Amino acid sequence: MAAPSGFELGTDGPKVILAGLDGSDSSWRATAYAAGLARRQGSLLAVAYIQPVLAAATALAGAVVEETTQEIADELLAALREAEHRVRGVWRVDWQFLTVRGDPYTGLAKLADELRADAVVVGASEQAGHKVIGSVAVRLVKAGRWPVTVVP
């Protein structure tokens, strides 16, 4: 019996899992969870930090703000490398770190589309205001373009 049209032999399972990392405890848990999924599935783990673009009131301090958000990105990358080094003897996962400027939802959605991510993993919001206006996780789920896992 012939394989159904459109089926790609040997490519079952997710190829790319995107994890959002902003340095919060829940985003670190989400990244660890995504790393476990990627390891078990043989997927690429793409870890993304979206550098916030601040309001116009801080536009005059633009260079300082940009430098600060880049420092955060550098610190997250260093922490990821350290974590990889600690677990290297136990297991390994192929990963890459990506950072773009923008709001978290738009940045993650754009990267998920560009990477053709099979899944997006994010931490639950730790900010009280998100109960009213909606968190990044809720917005990603509502977009309905990828399976989204929200890690507490």
Automatic annotation (TrEMBL):
<protein>
    <submittedName>
        <fullName>Universal stress protein UspA</fullName>
    </submittedName>
</protein>
<dbReference type="InterPro" id="IPR006016">
    <property type="entry name" value="UspA"/>
</dbReference>
<dbReference type="InterPro" id="IPR014729">
    <property type="entry name" value="Rossmann-like_a/b/a_fold"/>
</dbReference>
<comment type="similarity">
    <text>Belongs to the universal stress protein A family.</text>
</comment>
<dbReference type="InterPro" id="IPR006015">
    <property type="entry name" value="Universal_stress_UspA"/>
</dbReference>
<dbReference type="Pfam" id="PF00582">
    <property type="entry name" value="Usp"/>
</dbReference>
<feature type="domain" description="UspA">
    <location>
        <begin position="15"/>
        <end position="152"/>
    </location>
</feature>
